[in-house]
Design goal:
By secondary structure, the chain is α+β, with helices and mostly antiparallel strands. It has two domains: about 150 residues, no CATH class; about 120 residues. It is about 35% helix and about 30% strand. The strands form two sheets. The chain has a six-stranded antiparallel sheet, with no helix packed on it. The chain has a four-stranded antiparallel sheet with strand order 5-4-10-9, with no helix packed on it. A hairpin with a 2-residue loop joins strand 4 and strand 5. Helix 3 runs antiparallel to helix 4 and helix 3 runs parallel beside helix 5. The N and C termini lie far apart (about 90 Å).
Amino acid sequence: MSFLCVLMILTISQAQYQIGLAPRVSPDTEIYKKIGYTEVRIRYGAPSVKGREIFGDVEPYDHVWRAGANEATTLEISSNIDLEAGVLPAGKYALFIIPRERESWTVIFNHQSKQWGAFDYDESMDALRVDVVPQRLSEKVETLRYDIEAQGITSGAIIMTWSDVKLQIPFTTEFAEELGTILDERLASSDSSTHWVIYLQAAEVLVSQDKDLDTAEKWLDLSDKYAAPSESGWDKRYYPIAYIRSHALWTRAKLLALKGDYSTAAALGEALSTDKEHEMFYKRKGESQNINTLVSEWSKQ
């Protein structure tokens, strides 16, 4: 084959690559999860080991790595998250990693999300850096993988595994603040007659997570303040008023127990089991067993 033919083939091959016709060896991959109210999305090119020594060779120690292949890996979050090193505001970031032989690895969140690899990485554009101790794996992971792990509805972890390394980056969401925003939006778009139920539900969410109990108590007080006076005109799709009032009483009992007022919490719980007005709630779907168990525990405090 002549030199001219070889040159033509190389030129055509390069042109195909440049305009994106050739399939990528490291396929584009995306993972998405919603943690509480926060949407988390990671996009990355997924390279494979292919018998190579990755960290310390293909990806040298102490150098910024694109944390994937092709374009820089990106992390997109719909609301602020809290990491060990500080708060990462809502937005889209390039995700870089500096691997090290014996020390903690550095995970970098960089404002310049659209770039090829790490060739134009600019440290001055860093939003946050987090040091993470790597876990060495006994069996190699062939293809780079990211996971978003939910740990309840207020926290999670970004996990990178490749070759013989696993990195886990824990984070928490600003759950209570997000809930407050959603509450305001729901109040603004709903009929005022249902506001007491909306306040109650928001308070119940905080109590169930043992988060921001002072705010939960404020919302319970507002629920009591705006509660519908009677069944007249009440939309039964939202449960009978008697049931909702019992639910509000039980939510307050749990709140008081979390704040350390066990005697009052137990008294409210006992009222649910003895007062006729609470019978509908007390007998619904085994709720009585849960109430009796907790009241018994609180009474011993």
